[in-house]
Each structure stands twice: as C-alpha cells, then as structure tokens.
Design goal:
Distance between the termini: 42 Å
Low-confidence stretches: none
Number of helices: 4
CATH architecture: Orthogonal Bundle
Largest sheet: 3 strands, antiparallel
Number of domains: 1
Structural class: alpha+beta
CATH class: Mainly Alpha
Oligomer: single chain
Number of strands: 6
Helix content: 25-40%
Amino acid sequence: MNDIKQFLRSNALRPTKQRIVIAGYLFDGTDKHVTAESLSTELAKRKHIISLATIYNTLHDFYENGLLKKLTLSADRVYFDTNTNDHHHFYSEKEQFLIDINKNIKVNGLPKTPKNKKINKIEVIVHLDK
C-alpha cells in the first residue's frame, strides 16, 4: 500500500483511499483495458464499492497525469489502457473487449498532411466481428 501511495504522490496525485484502491488494481504489473463501468464491476467483486463518478474522475485524473491512455471508440464507449506505449488494438463491439496487437503494423498510402503539420503517431484499431 505504501508503494501505491508513493506512486501516486510521485505522479502529482493525492493518495486518497479510492485512488489507492483503483491504482492498486490498475497498476499491478498486468496491462489492462477498462471502462469506468467494467472497473466498477471488477472492484465490487473485490468488495470495494466506489461510486461511478469517483471512478470516472480518477480514470481521467490518471489519464491527465500520463498514467493511462484513453481510447474513445464511440460516443458512449471509452477505454483506458494501462499500457501507455504506442501500440495497436483489436476491438469487438459485440463482445466489448479491447486487446493489444503485439505486432508492428505497416501503414501505406498515408495522405499528405495539412500545411505546417506532421504526423505525430498512428494508432490502429482493428474492429472485429464474429
């Protein structure tokens, strides 16, 4: 628990009881993709009842401090990824899962960028169907 408190402090976040619980789950060494709703369900299974609003706020705080990537897949589906390195994903809307693609992807035929702009990064999300 002290490691998590120090982790939060070192990332300019006050270690509240809720943040400690959420960070303890998210940053346990295993990459995760969560929505606020899926995180709430998982924490409830572990006997941690935290309001959905607090979970949303905490996920956004972690994102704003560079601890999570945010992937907006639709107006009502936002995933947070604990792996903040550049990588690509498979996504199934029907099954509501997002998983990493552990292979480099080559993208050919990119359009010319607007004047005075350059490509910073490319993220590919491959949508799956049954």
